[in-house]
Amino acid sequence: MGAGPAANAILMVFYLFYRGASIYLFPLPFQIPVKWVVIGIGTIEAAYWVLSGYPLLFTVNLLGLGMGYLWHKFLYRRAGMSVMIEDRIYGMRNAYHRWKRRRAARKFQVYMRKHEKDPKQYFDEYGNFMPPDERDKKNGGRGGWVN
Description:
The protein has helices at 4-17, 34-51, 56-114, and strands spanning 22-24, 31-33. A hairpin with a 6-residue loop joins strand 1 (22-24) and strand 2. Strands 1-2 form a two-stranded antiparallel ribbon. It has 147 residues and is mainly alpha-helical. 8% of the residues are buried. The mean pLDDT is 79.
């Protein structure tokens, strides 16, 4: 049947993604909202379907519009749902690891208070450990950049 049904499906999906968009139709020098283009093409195809002696071509073209709608409604949203579920799973995992780090930091602060030591004596402003005998040296006694 040609590329007509596929073009109609792409036009419908474009309309469903960008409902407020306007496009240029080739011979016309002004923009037309996509909604009116889809309605116009659907109306023309339906009129030909009713008035034509060979309605199969126009039925397939109308089915192209319908398949674009069904793809957007079911398949695209399903893919979006799986992405949302995946983000939730990884978000929960990351939240768990953040909770573990905060818990370890609180335990460390309790440990340092218990031994009457200030954690700032052992760590520089970047969080790098400085051994007690090398506190006066830059970067904990190591030369160069420290991660």
